């Protein structure tokens, strides 16, 4: 067997193993959702896998904050460790909230007109501006502000990160990149949502020249915003001259 064939076979085997792990994890979550609490032995029996495999999945889920455990004393033998889902596990299950939100927005527009919908979306913009502003006010520098904003968007499911870039005029800049849009279905029906997102960034960072250069709803892979490095007007001249300090930044690195 050639080296390329062996590598291809290994890739297929790795992909199959990954799919199997994902299926087992999802079934485990469903069992805990339906049962409330389970011990390792019960989970292994229902899943048809070994106790070792179950413990490996549970450890990973505990690290992700989706599963918790408690000890239960029993008449015979050692205490049993019972596992249950945390509130964070709710995101692993289907939700109807976005569909309901779409229906309510459509009904609002139907009953009260486009102006009422616009006022509602603008009120939401004001709420976000206040919430973000309270967090960004704690920043000690322009870099801190950008990192806090990135963390906020990441927490809300946008898979957000900052990266250095060169703008169209050759000037250094930063790109705020959102790899996912949890509001995509709503934005497709109400495109003004995307305009308000851009306005939100301009307001909370105090930079009117922030612009979007890639748009998921426009067929792009990401929503990418250009932030000029001349921003951070209140800081020392040398503090934001180069984007290099952001090159290794990811949202997970930002302190709470």
Please tag this protein with its features.
two-stranded antiparallel sheet; alpha+beta; 50% helix; four-stranded antiparallel sheet; 256 residues; 8 helices; 14% strand
Any overview of this molecule?
The relative contact order is 0.09. Residues about 5-20, about 235-245 and about 245-255 have low confidence and may be disordered. The chain starts with a helix and ends in a 28-residue tail after the last strand. Helices cover about 50% and strands about 15% of the residues. The protein contains 8 helices and 6 strands, in the order αααββαααββααββ. The protein folds into 2 domains: about 5-90, Arc Repressor Mutant, subunit A (Orthogonal Bundle); about 110-255, no CATH class. Strand 3 and strand 4 form a beta hairpin. It has about 260 residues and is α+β, with helices and mostly antiparallel strands. The protein has helices at about 5-35, 40-45, 50-65, 95-110, 115-135, 140-155, 185-190, 190-205; strands at about 65-70, 80-85, 160-165, 170-180, 210-215, 225-230. The strands form 2 sheets. A 4-stranded antiparallel β-sheet has the order 3-4-6-5, with helices on one face. It has a two-stranded antiparallel sheet with strand order 1-2.
